[in-house]
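During the reporting period the student researcher (J.K.) took over the structure-prediction task from the postdoctoral fellow and processed the backlog of single-chain submissions. One of the processed entries is reproduced below for the supervisory committee.
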Amino acid sequence: TYYKPQTLDQYVEYMRQVAAVAPELPFYLYDIDFVTGIPFTAYEFMTAGRDKIPTLRGLKHTSPDFISMNHILMKHGDYYQLIMGTDEMYLQGLAIGIEDTIMCTWNGNTLNRLKAAFDKGDLVTARKEQENALRACDVRRRAGLSIPGGNKAVLRAMGFPAGQPRSPCGQVTQGQVDSIKKELTEIGFFE
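J.K. obtained the following structure tokens:
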């Protein structure tokens, strides 16, 4: 929606209406505040929504706000499922106890190595892999594409026929794909 709720109660009520359309399914908030512009934290929403949205089960965390995630874990414990949604902060998520993920498939090898190192207690390697993920995400970002466009361009650079992002996102050119592939090669992404 282009219009933002003015109060936390309006936000929760709007999401309650969305969740009510599918009352048999669990409802998850997609917390991507830097895109939506919603001014309320995930912690505020999850706390206010707990008794008002019967199917509210968790959220996909794609926000840099880890304070909010810590508050959710402290107040609600295991009541909610918290899912990491950003490659750039996977190590931080693991450090506070968020292990479930929905992230970029193209960064999967790097993130799997990061998780394996973290699970072994090898923070030096985990940090190195987090840096590798950051470098790859920086390549995508420098291309000047939308988030979906950048992801599709990387997938195409890897040889997957990912197609084009949906409107209103701009189209990905072959020149952008080639440039991304060159930069990813330079940082050792394909090794």
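The committee noted the following: Residues 16 and 53 are 5 Å apart (CA to CA).
J.K. will present the remaining backlog at the next meeting.
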